[in-house]
């Protein structure tokens, strides 16, 4: 009814100033009079239109206001439901169940009372528009209403989905990604269909090259990545990460919790030597420091050279992992300036102490820098960015995750109970006397 009335008034006048629809609730928040008086006292409003209905007596308050001259502005009124008299029994109208419980509440009685009080009441709803137009035209002739220039209606914005489909707009992205896309017929890794990844046998190294570097690296590079993962996968149960994983597993925690407990120990003291070695050696090399100058400079600073030194291995007992990686890199990489530099540093450090050798962290770190800088797959800026954002340490995290999961599964398979550290392996340093 509200839509119909707004449409009717808009076609027969210069428009609706304001309209309010009041439901047929038993306890309405406002009444006809609340709004009619508000409009009546507004100088911008020149005429009123009321659409009532069968049932209730709210319209009689309007009748009284017209009689007492509280309302003097022209008001066009109509109460719907006049057809109720055609039925022999009581009829409810509309979803609110409007009905007349007395003669006074019928639409016919209300329309008659409104007309007698001075309201402009048409003979039927079909003539309501004409009645509104007649009153409006009279007010125009009298100069009460001065037509204003028609304001063009605001442009309705294009539907968002349609505009996006046409390519006119784009939705602001919550985040960006450049490594994978699952929206098409099949998953893409850096633009390469997953089926092609499998069919071409890219392996773990090739998959890493796509997901970490958004490009395919040459076979020697992907082989190197896989070698790094193999040699960093585990270093026994005694190191902090594996120890944490085992303790957490034996406490009854799940796989993810146990894995994370081990991963959280990775940092500068455990596992961080890969990034540290790459950074220290590359900075010294880029500054043009001779190997001896680099060693002396680190000694003056009181800093350890990351990637140098081993608890067990030495010149006389070399680490076979280091030898295998070093020989592979020297044989298959295009050029190895940073590895050569690190080996010169090793000659100096082992002359002082035979166990100050280039260790696994060191050889992986410097070889990775040589790969990034000299493979032809990266610009110098890209190479430096990958070094700085922790890519090399990512190899250790990924590789060691395999080992941590292995320890988790091993403890579960062995059905190991809750771990409690033996007290005789703890040095208790307590005060001799309690002081209050």
Account of the protein in words:
- The protein is mainly alpha-helical and 436 residues long.
- The chain has two domains: 1-142, Rossmann fold, CATH 3.40.50; 240-414, Cytochrome P450-Terp, domain 2 (Cytochrome p450-Terp, domain 2).
- It is 49% helix and 4% strand.
- It contains 18 helices and five strands.
- The chain has helices spanning 2-12, 32-40, 58-67, 107-117, 128-142, 160-165, 194-199, 203-213, 219-232, 240-250, 255-263, 273-287, 291-301, 320-332, 337-352, 360-374, 380-388, 391-413; strands at 48-53, 75-80, 180-181, 188-189, 192-193.
- It has a three-stranded antiparallel beta sheet. Strands 1-2 form a two-stranded parallel sheet.
- A hairpin with a 6-residue loop joins strand 3 and strand 4 (188-189).
- The model has no long low-confidence stretch (mean pLDDT 90).
- This is ATP citrate synthase.
- Its EC number is 2.3.3.8.
How is this structure best summarized?
Helix content is 49%, strand content 4%. With 436 residues, it is mainly alpha-helical.
**How many domains?**
2
CATH domain topology of the largest domain: Cytochrome p450-Terp, domain 2
**What is the N-to-C order of secondary-structure elements (H for helix, E for strand)?**
HHEHEHHHEEEHHHHHHHHHHHH
Biggest sheet record: 3 strands, antiparallel
State the CATH architecture of the largest domain: Orthogonal Bundle
Measured by DSSP, the beta-strand proportion falls in under 5%
User: How large is the count of helical segments?
Assistant: 18
Total number of β-strand segments? 5
> How would you name the oligomeric state of the polypeptide chains in this document?
single chain
Characterize the overall form. Answer: elongated
Mean pLDDT score? 90
